[in-house]
């Protein structure tokens, strides 16, 4: 975690590296593309109908799009790297950044099948939330997912986020279907309890997410 003066929140758009015992979140770059192509093959994730995970052939375009959103000031993209093997295992972002309201969303996340249901996701979320609340001084962090993405909904709830509601017909999907979006959030006053719960999971005191 980068050190910042106590009196001033860090820049929301700063490309920082967040390192833990199980995973390192690196600022996304085009150099990550080969590793991401290999990671997305692990489970053939692009075939999951209720998610928007890039195909191997579309990975370069997806990385470029995320980098363009960073330049535009709306996203901070990361590549996730396992510490045990050194392999790139997915992507995540800060997105829908609203600096003036001290809010952002953690989303556009995917993990290789072999990295799912491990400490990697728990630690990545802890690193992202710690920066959001303690470095960026956020008052709320959102999570959004497809109504039919029940594994994602359950994983978000296990983080300690609370469901705010459902946005009906929020997105038009690539196959022409309409997506209902489930919105969760963690607010500033809840962060100490959420941090304790996630830290306990990483210490092996609770079941993994």
UniProtKB/TrEMBL annotation:
Q: Which residues form the N-acetyltransferase domain?
A: 23-162
Q: What is this protein called?
A: GNAT family N-acetyltransferase
Q: What is the lineage of its organism?
A: Bacteria, Bacillati, Actinomycetota, Actinomycetes, Micrococcales
Task: Look up the domain of life of the source.
Answer: Bacteria
Residue ranges crossing the lipid bilayer per the database entry: none
* InterPro entries per UniProt: Acyl_CoA_acyltransferase, GNAT_dom
Q: Name one GO molecular function term.
A: acyltransferase activity, transferring groups other than amino-acyl groups
